[in-house]
Design goal:
By secondary structure, this protein is an alpha/beta fold. Helix content is about 30%, strand content about 30%. The chain has six helices and ten strands. Strands 1, 2, 3, 5, 6, 7, 8 and 9 form an eight-stranded mixed β-sheet that branches. A hairpin with a 5-residue loop joins strand 7 and strand 8. It is globular.
Length: about 150
């Protein structure tokens, strides 16, 4: 699914495949031999009152600040999506959703992500990682907005 999206849109992004699971930010950083700050996580947030979801993309060494996301979006009942909701909303399990190719779900990208030349993100597959420029995330994500949405751990 993601590979087709990359090819059909002519992205420079690539998928890096591994023989072991690299679904967590720490596992991905270790396999790639990069810092945790080079890994971008896509967090699926769901507002049950409005029945709306948001994708929040932040560096793995930061957390997504739900209060900041709420103020930006006006969704004040946001919580991390359940496993079931994440799959229904994105088509991907929690922790492996890519920051692109998910239609109909607004994407907020943390400003710190945009300062990177390249980030490594979920690919929708437990054994692969998406290597992508933040500019491509901004261009090919759905209704992308860049804002300060993170907090330091």
């Amino acid at each position: 699914m993601l590979e087709e999206f990359i090819q059909s849109n002519g992205l420079k992004a690539t998928l890096i495949r591994f023989e072991k699971d690299v679904a967590t930010p720490k596992a991905a950083a270790s396999a790639l031999k990069v810092e945790l700050s080079d890994i971008a996580r896509t967090v699926v947030l769901f507002d049950g009152e409005k029945n709306e979801a948001i994708l929040a993309v932040a560096l793995a060494n930061n957390s997504v600040d739900i209060d900041k996301v709420s103020k930006i979006t006006g969704y004040y009942s946001l919580e991390p999506a359940s496993d079931k909701d994440a799959v229904e909303i994105t088509g991907y399990e929690i922790g492996i959703a890519p920051p692109i190719s998910i239609y109909g779900t607004k994407t907020l990208v943390d400003a710190k992500v945009m300062k990177k030349e390249i980030v490594y993100a979920g690919s929708g597959d437990l054994q692969s990682i998406l290597k992508i420029s933040p500019k491509e995330i901004e261009e090919f994500g759905w209704e992308v907005e860049v804002a300060d949405i993170s907090a330091d751990f």
